[in-house]
Amino acid sequence: MTDRSYLGEFELMILLAVLHLGDEAYGVPISRELERHRDRDVSVGSVYAALERLEAKSLVTSTLGDPTPERGGKAKRYFRVTKEGLRQVSETRRILTRLWKQLPELKGEPS
């Protein structure tokens, strides 16, 4: 039986943002990081939905920080990429790079 698990585009972007943010990876900064690179709005709700899927797949783990007065006593939920998550990011990169290299030169696109 073949492994049918793969990373969708948004999930891959979330994992890359979490890796980039390091210890400050929680919903709002992840959303802002994606907005900065995509030049379009990214809802925090969609980020958390993707993070829940990634956590269910054991590609990220989460921990709660300390409650803060600025957040009305709520704690931030911080995320980290697991070893399996890092493996899948690397594998996805390898596959995408191979596919890009096999494309014939696109008209109007620099080589």
- What Rg is obtained from the alpha carbons, in whole angstroms? 17 Å
**Overall 3D geometry?**
elongated
Number of helices: 4
- What is the strand content? 5-15%
List the secondary-structure elements in sequence, H or E: HHHEEH
Structural class: alpha+beta
Spell out the CATH superfamily: Winged helix-like DNA-binding domain superfamily/Winged helix DNA-binding domain
* Helix coverage percent: 40-55%
Could you characterize the architecture of this molecule?
It contains four helices and two strands; from the N terminus they run αααββα. The protein is of the alpha+beta class. The chain has one domain (9-95): Winged helix-like DNA-binding domain superfamily/Winged helix DNA-binding domain (Arc Repressor Mutant, subunit A, Orthogonal Bundle). A two-stranded antiparallel ribbon has the order 1-2. A hairpin with a 7-residue loop joins strand 1 (60-67) and strand 2 (75-81). The protein is elongated, with a radius of gyration of 17 Å. The N and C termini lie far apart (38 Å).
Summarize the structure in short.
This protein has helices spanning about 10-20, 25-40, 45-55, 85-100, and strands at about 60-65, 75-80. It is an alpha+beta fold and about 110 residues long. The longest helix is centred in the last third of the chain and has 20 residues, at about 85-100.
